[in-house]
Design brief:
The chain is α+β, with helices and mostly antiparallel strands. It is built from 8 helices and 7 strands; from the N terminus they run H-H-E-H-E-H-E-H-E-H-E-H-E-E-H. The radius of gyration is 17 Å and the shape is globular.
């Protein structure tokens, strides 16, 4: 599966089989995690075969089940940490999808203490969120989406911009709020949040999707 195909195939999945990730897929995810940490200045860990983080009341409230592997998205505190977490976390999401795995972002519905212990976070490393990863019981389903005109400000938008926004609209955001906007100014694109909770993480996520679709770098 190509990266573009992964964008269209990816849907949030909360129920998993509990099956361990295949060795070759796990190796590819670890390699991609290391690349994201180098490029993004992050401290992401892939935690495998650890069911405690998603056995809490919060996880049950969030309707998670069968989760035994996840990405602990972490890094040293900085003003742009959440946006980088979203950007590189979504890069891992699409990599996982391309490998035949499923994922779901989680900001609150997991046991934070269990994650910190399993991920062996070091002093100064802040846990931002978690991404469940594994073999879903289903492939998930598409959700209602805003339109191009809802999230784009552009006059006579070129095809690359339209495709970038199309891909951004396929990105996961907190409770599907899609509170972002892409503004085309000449040949330059500015992405901004329009509010909402976890907006900085969401902005990083949609930026990665826009870049994947448009072939243009925003960072």
């Amino acid at each position: 599966m190509t990266l573009e195909e992964a964008v269209f195939a990816r849907h949030s999945v909360r129920a998993y089989t509990g099956e361990p990730i295949a060795e070759d897929a796990a190796a590819a995810l670890k390699e991609e995690t290391e690349a994201c940490n180098r490029e993004g200045g992050l401290a992401i860990r892939l935690v495998q075969n650890e069911p405690k983080a998603f056995k809490s009341f919060l996880a049950r409230y969030g309707k998670f089940s069968g989760v035994t592997s996840y990405f602990a998205i972490a890094g040293e505190q900085a003003d742009d940490l959440q946006e980088r977490a979203g950007y590189y976390g979504e890069r891992l999401v699409l990599k996982a999808q391309a490998l035949g795995l499923n994922t779901c972002w989680a900001a609150l519905t997991f046991g934070k203490g269990a994650v910190k212990k399993a991920a062996c976070l070091k002093k100064g490393e802040k846990l931002v969120c978690v991404i469940a990863v594994g073999y879903g019981k289903t492939q998930g389903a598409a959700r209602k989406s805003k339109t191009f005109d809802d999230v784009a400000v552009a006059k006579d938008a070129p095809d690359w911009f339209k495709k970038g926004v199309e891909f951004a609209l396929l990105a996961p955001t907190a409770t599907n709020q899609q509170k972002f906007r892409f503004i085309l100014e000449g040949d330059t694109v500015r992405a901004e949040s329009t509010g909402g909770f976890y907006d900085k993480i969401d902005l990083g996520i949609v930026k990665y999707h826009f870049e994947t679709g448009s072939g243009r770098k925003l960072r």
